[in-house]
Each structure stands twice: as structure tokens, then as C-alpha cells.
Design brief:
alpha/beta
Length: 580
């Protein structure tokens, strides 16, 4: 074969090789593009259905110049190059998972070990999990207040807030869970460690009962309770603090001081209390003080939990037991999520354990309470707005209470503290399961006192079921616990005798198995209730009082849907229009 033929063959082979290389390159390019699109849609999610918003990300904090280890501003991230955690916990502090079966650290460690991935690859693997089902990133401005529950970060914590997240175990600071040792110093030392770090998680391990005096959580703190926290049985270890501005005095003794709650947080953003353990208020130590002012040193009983002036609050999983006074009291808070927890407070005769409310939501905005089990000795849930005369307290608005199971207790209420105004409240699909009881008790209850003023507007009870109510299933009471003074007519909307305005109240799709007394709507003479709406109310066993069982006082307008329902209203309710 000649030289030119060899050269031609060589050129042909070279060209064929180049063509094969080009073809392979194209194939690999198509595969790479396809894989990239697949990863993109796995991470970002296909555009279908409603998307849920969570806050995810790192921040190098304090407005400092970015040092390259983390982006200085939260932004959507499409690649692992945007994320540079140094440890699994760094990533854990930035991502809120949609379930709690495994901790973030456990998931990343598993991925690294079993899939032989690097840290960045493991982060991306978890990131896909975080973002599945269309979960989106959002930018957050901590100076702004959220206007919707949809913007509450899952987990209670806004992770765009700079912090050096750490976890501490209270036993590492000397706590002993023997239900005898006073562990106050250990709790305070552990919390101080978290405060120095800018936030973190305080763990109370399972298997012990850890007694303590009051503790105060700092900003960006998660209290995880697997064991039991129990208040020490020593009133002298519960400090006296100033009264709430919208109350002005202690609830028990009307003095200018009150006792600190067992667990509290004040002016601290992003507070979470969670776990499968118990927080015990040791109420039986405190109840005798209610009737003995001298023994109590003229200071009232403490709540179990009081969260004051905080934004981004989540309480879940824990059981709150035997409160000395109210059980759970969020006050002046924004973006509050209370869910899947249990309250077990006693109910007693003759004021042996008074005022053991379940949840008292006070001058808060954007609150969701759902899937809880509540047994107590007073209101299961009530919505408050202060008592310092008309319009001197912050309002409460945008509250939803739904899908809760209510054992013994006194129902779903508004008031009686309404000074700042209560509006836009929905009680939906709650079930009161008690089948017997004693004392007072209502299903849907609006209670108002003389001099408080304010307003109660846009309130709905929809799709609620009450098996047994030891009182009226529906009551609107303008003279609640006001003695004979309530009979004095309120004179204006702003002075010391201010009326409480009641408008746009809906009770719909209510099932009452048994109620022991008739129903009452009794409004102020100079401020009649307006726009009351009653629809589809089923009474399986009527009270012994003769028909009609619903009586009205000072009702200016409203509607009753259905002629059958109309039969339970007497002639005093003539202002209510009957609709088909």
C-alpha cells in the first residue's frame, strides 16, 4: 500500500474519531442538560397546587461584610456552590423540615455515610427534601411584621436572623432529674450559654423530673423538653415583676406586682417550645393561696408559660400540667403557632383550684391554634385585649382556633378583657367531648364587663360540636362578673363607663348534644348588638327549661336561617330576621 493511501486512511480515522468524540460530547451534553432539568424540577418543584413558604438560608450576621463563608443576604439558591456549611449543625440551623421523624443532623449524617457523599452533596440531598412539594425560598425583612399566617416560618424560627446556633443539655450544667434538687442555677447557666451564642437549643432529657424556679428564654431559643420541668414548691423563689401594661395590676390581689411565670420569654424573637415531655406548674402547692392573701404575701399565682412581646412563636408536642393560674399566655405577640400539644389542668368545686384556663390569647396578632387536646377548669381558649378602660390596650386580631379536642372545661370564649378590641376570630371544627360536669360552662361565650369598652367584631363559631355543656351552649353576656354595677347603662364609647361594641357574630353548623340551661344574648342597652347570625344549629337534647330556649336583650339586628331554628327564639329576639 502506498504512502498516500496510508495518509488518507490516517486522516479518515482521525476524522472518524473526531466525529465519534463530537457525537459522544453531544450525547453527554444532552444527558447533562436533562439531568440538570431533572434536578431543577426536583428541587424547585413543578408548578402545581398551592405552594408553602418557609424561610431557609444562612446569614453571616449583623450586616457585616460577607467573608465568603455564607451569603450576606438571603436569596433563592439553585446550586450547592451557594451553600457552604462547615458542619451538619450549620445546615440544620438553616433549614426547617416538613416532618420531624429525623433531625437534620441525623439525615445529613445518614446521607454522608450511606451514599458516600461529601458535605455539600449531602446538603443538596437534604435541600431537595426541604424543597419538595413546591416549597419556596423567600427573602425576609426582620423589621417588618408578618400580615398573614402563611408567612410564619415553620418551626417558629426565622433563620435569616444571624446566630451561631448551638445545642446544650441542661444536665451538662449540673441539673439532676430527681424531682427534689433545685436546678434553677443549671437552667440559668445553660440559657446564658445560648444567649452568648445568639441562640440555640436547650435540651431537657427524658427520664427525669427537673425542678426549677422561673426561667426566661432568650432570643432565637428552642426549649426541647423530653423529661419533666416542674416548678419548685416555694413561692419565695418566684420573683415579683411588674404587671402587664394592659392589666395594670395582679389578677389575684389587685396589687401593682405579680409573680413571674415558670417559663417565660420577653421581647425575644423566634421562640420555640417543643418535645414529648411535661412542664408541670405544681399548681396544688399554689391553689390555697387564692383564699389566703397573707400566706401568699399579697402576690398572685404564676402562669406556666407566658410569652410576652415576641414575634415568631411555636409551641408544640409538650404537655402542660397543673397550672397555678393560667396555663399558656401569649401576650403582645405576633405570628404564634400552637399545635399538637396537650393541656391537663384541674377543675375543682368551691374555688379549690380557680382560674385554670387552657390558652389565653391576649393582644396578639396572627395566631393559629390547632390539633391540641385541652382539659382545664375554666375557658378552654379565650381571646383577650386588656382591661385598662376603653382603647388603652393593644387589640387582638386574626386568630384561628381549629381542630382541637376539648375535655372538661368552659368552652370557647371572647373576653372578658376587651379594652383594646377583638376582631377577626374563627373557632372552627372543635369538639367538646365532656359528657358531664359541674359549675358553669358554655359552648360559645362572649363576656363583657362594665368600663372595659373596646369592641368584639367579626367573630365566628363554625362547625363546632359540644357533647355536654353545663350551662348555655350560646351566651353573650354584657354584665359578666360585674355585680350589680353592670345594670348601670354605659354612657359613651370612650369614658370610664364605655360600652363594648358587638358586631358581626356568626354561629353556624353547631351541634349540641346536651345543654343544661337556656341560651342568652344580653347586650348593653346603649350599645345593642348588631348583625348576629344563627344558622343550622342542631340540638339533640334540649335543656329542661321550657321553649323557647333562646332569649335576647338589646339586639338591634341579625338573622336566623330556617323556620325550625326560629322556634327556639322567643319574642324578645324579634329584631332577628328569619331567612329561609
Amino acid at each position: 500500500m502506498g504512502k498516500s493511501s496510508l495518509n488518507n486512511n490516517g486522516r479518515n480515522n482521525t476524522q472518524a474519531t473526531k466525529k465519534r468524540r463530537i457525537s459522544l460530547t453531544c450525547v453527554f451534553s444532552v444527558i447533562a442538560v436533562t439531568y440538570s432539568l431533572f434536578i431543577y424540577f426536583v428541587i424547585v418543584g413543578f408548578d402545581g397546587g398551592k405552594k408553602e413558604t418557609v424561610v431557609v438560608g444562612f446569614d453571616n450576621g449583623g450586616g457585616k461584610e460577607n467573608d465568603g463563608s455564607a451569603p450576606s443576604k438571603l436569596r433563592p439558591r439553585d446550586s450547592a456552590q451557594d451553600i457552604s456549611p462547615n458542619t451538619p449543625d450549620d445546615f440544620c440551623a438553616s433549614c426547617m423540615f416538613r416532618d420531624t421523624d429525623f433531625s437534620c443532623t441525623e439525615r445529613i449524617d445518614w446521607v454522608i455515610k450511606n451514599k458516600k457523599m461529601t458535605m455539600k452533596e449531602a446538603v443538596m440531598e437534604n435541600l431537595k427534601y426541604c424543597l419538595k412539594e413546591g416549597v419556596q425560598y423567600v427573602e425576609t425583612d426582620n423589621s417588618k411584621t408578618s400580615s398573614s399566617l402563611n408567612s410564619i416560618p415553620l418551626g417558629g424560627r426565622d433563620m435569616s436572623t444571624p446566630m451561631n446556633w448551638i445545642m446544650v443539655d441542661v444536665t451538662e450544667y449540673g441539673a439532676i432529674g430527681d424531682n427534689n434538687t433545685d436546678n434553677t442555677d443549671a437552667f440559668h447557666a445553660a440559657i446564658e450559654e445560648l444567649n452568648k451564642a445568639g441562640g440555640g437549643e436547650l435540651l431537657v432529657p427524658s427520664g427525669g423530673v427537673y425542678q426549677t424556679a422561673p426561667i426566661t428564654l432568650g432570643p432565637h431559643t428552642t426549649l426541647t423538653v423530653h423529661g419533666t420541668i416542674r416548678g419548685v414548691a416555694d413561692q419565695h423563689k418566684f420573683p415579683a415583676i411588674d404587671p402587664l401594661p394592659s392589666f395594670g395590676r395582679d389578677a389575684d390581689f389587685r396589687v401593682k406586682r405579680r409573680r413571674q411565670a415558670l417559663v417565660s420569654a420577653r421581647h425575644a424573637p423566634n421562640i420555640t417550645i417543643r418535645g414529648d415531655g411535661v412542664i408541670d406548674g405544681a399548681g396544688w402547692y399554689w391553689y390555697p393561696f387564692f383564699l389566703n392573701h397573707t400566706k401568699a404575701n399579697y402576690l398572685g399565682r404564676p402562669h406556666i408559660i407566658e410569652i410576652e412581646n415576641c414575634t415568631g412563636v411555636e409551641i408544640t408536642g409538650v404537655t402542660l400540667r397543673d397550672p397555678a393560674f393560667w396555663t399558656l399566655h401569649p401576650v403582645y405577640c405576633t405570628d404564634v403557632y400552637i399545635h399538637h400539644m396537650k393541656i391537663d389542668a384541674p377543675m375543682c368545686r368551691n374555688y379549690r383550684c380557680p382560674n385554670t384556663d387552657g390558652i389565653d390569647i391576649h393582644s396578639c396578632q396572627n395566631v393559629l391554634v390547632e390539633y391540641n387536646t385541652i382539659e382545664c377548669g375554666d375557658d378552654h381558649v379565650t381571646i383577650l385585649a386588656g382591661k385598662l378602660r376603653h382603647n388603652r390596650s393593644p387589640p387582638t386580631r386574626n386568630v384561628t382556633v381549629q381542630h382541637n379536642i376539648l375535655g372538661r372545661g368552659m368552652g370557647l370564649a371572647i373576653g372578658s378583657s376587651t379594652s383594646g378590641g377583638v376582631s377577626d376570630v374563627l373557632y372552627y371544627n372543635n369538639t367538646m367531648t365532656q359528657i358531664s360536669g359541674f359549675g358553669q360552662g358554655q359552648g360559645a361565650h362572649i363576656k363583657m364587663r362594665m368600663r372595659y369598652g373596646g369592641y368584639v367584631k367579626n367573630i365566628s363559631w363554625i362547625d363546632n360540636t359540644f357533647y355536654y355543656v353545663n350551662g348555655p351552649a350560646v351566651e353573650i353576656n354584657s354584665g359578666y362578673q360585674s355585680g350589680s354595677s353592670w345594670k348601670r347603662t354605659c354612657t359613651n364609647s370612650t369614658g370610664d363607663l364605655a360600652c363594648t361594641e358587638v358586631d358581626n357574630i356568626t354561629i353556624k353548623n353547631m351541634v349540641v348534644h346536651k345543654a343544661r340551661s337556656g341560651w342568652h344574648v344580653d347586650c348593653f342597652e346603649n350599645a345593642p348588638c348588631t348583625n348576629l347570625h344563627f344558622e343550622n344549629i342542631t340540638i339533640l337534647e334540649e335543656p329542661k327549661s321550657k321553649k323557647p330556649i333562646m332569649k335576647c336583650g338589646n339586639v338591634a339586628s341579625g338573622t336566623v336561617v330556617g323556620s325550625d331554628l326560629r322556634e327556639i327564639f322567643d319574642e324578645s329576639c324579634a329584631s332577628l330576621e328569619t331567612l329561609p
